[in-house]
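User: Teach me something about this protein's shape.
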Amino acid sequence: MQLNEVTFSEARPVDGYGPGFFRVGGALHEGALLLTTTGLSTWGGYDDDAGLLALAGKVDVLFIGTGQEIAHIPADLRKRLEGAGIGVEVMNSPAACRTYNVLASEGRRIALAALTV
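Assistant: First, the predicted structure itself:
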């Protein structure tokens, strides 16, 4: 088996996560996060849509991590995001982090909003 090192040009990968935290690019971030290929900020959860809507025109897909288990996001949130032209993919946070890392390494226009596990 051949292993290839993954490189991230501008993006910082999610290195790990645990109860109440994420590790992004080697730095600890407590609480939910909003991560793009250009930056990291705190996300206030489903009621905090301002940062998500600000991604319109900047990302093609937003991965929403719902915590340990997959769950539906509020229908009105999905409607607002899709109305702004942002594709939405919902999965549990571990899967959302892995998917973000793979696509970020490919230079895709993506973002991750994730609740802690």
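Now, about its shape. The helical segments are 50-53, 75-83, 93-105. The CA atoms of residues 20 and 116 lie 5 Å apart. If you'd like, I can walk through any region in more detail.
User: That's plenty for now, thanks!
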